[in-house]
Each structure stands twice: as C-alpha cells, then as structure tokens.
Amino acid sequence: MKTALGRILLAMVLVLTGTVFAGQGSAGATTAWAPDHFKVCWDGGSCIVYAEGDITWGNRTAVVSVNLVAPGYYATAHFDAFAGTTKVDSEIVYEPGDSFTIGDPNLVGGINRIRTQVCVMGTGGEYGCGGQWNDIRD
Asked: How far apart are CA 127 and CA 42, in angstroms?
C-alpha cells in the first residue's frame, strides 16, 4: 500500500513540477516590456514633417514600425539604439511605411533606449534636423 501511495505522490509532484517549470519557461520567452508609440516632428510646433510609429521591445533588439510623413520635402528619420550610454546600432528611414529590427541579437541585456530624430533637406541643399526623442524600454 505504501508503495502505491508513494508512486501516486511522486507522479503528482512530477506533474506539478513540470507545470511550474513549463510556466516559467513560457513566461521567459515572451516580451516583458510594453510597446512604445512615438511621433517625432522636424519642425517643432506645426509638425508638418514627422515620423510616427511603434516600438516593440524584445530581449536584445526591438522592432520599429515607422511612417515618415514629409509632404513636399526630402526627409529622413534616424534611429539610434543604445545599451546604457553605448550606441549599439543605427538605422535611417527614407520612405513611409518602413519596419526594421534594431539592436544586437548577441548583446547580453540588449538595448534599452532608442533615440529618434527627423531631418529634412531643402531645395537649395540646406539640411536641418529637429529635436531628438528618446524611448526607454520599461
């Protein structure tokens, strides 16, 4: 009788332990950070030229979906990824409706900040950039 009861208890412990570990494994595989939405303007107040989109944070990288709006202008959106104060990766967007992954998949701890800036080139060749915006992985 003790042997049968012992086997049942052992089976229950193994099932429960497997469930606990499976739950931890699945939770570790999912993203733990909320996505960020951004809208960064080149021209400050009127916001005629801008980049707007979303950042989906991963463990070591992030996926950025951006729409660059620049009616009558040649504009670029610049994205720099950081781990602390160290710049890890950069990307420049030239067209609306772009999506890309930024960061370093081999960097332990990954990126924790993305800096965005919109720049415009005028018809006479002059070049200017708006203010920088930082999104923090939190």
From this structure: 11
- Residue 88 to residues 45, 62, 84, Cα–Cα distance (Å): 31, 12, 10
Q: What is the DSSP letter of 30?
A: S
Here the tokens at position 95 are 């067209």
| Mean pLDDT over each residue of the chain, to the nearest integer | 82
| 46-65 pLDDT tens trace | 899 999 999 999 999 999 99
> Residue 37: CB partners within 8 Å, gap ≥ 6?
52, 53, 54, 55
**Whole-angstrom Cα Rg for the chain:** 23
The pTM of this model reads 0.76
What kind and span of H or E run contains 122?
none
Between vectors from CA 93 to CA 87 and to CA 96, what angle results, nearest 5°?
A: 145
Mean pLDDT, to the nearest integer, of 97-108?
97
Please answer whether residues 88 and 105 qualify as being in contact, where contact means their C-beta atoms are separated by less than 8 angstroms: no
Question: How many CA within 13 A on the CB side of residue 137?
Answer: 23
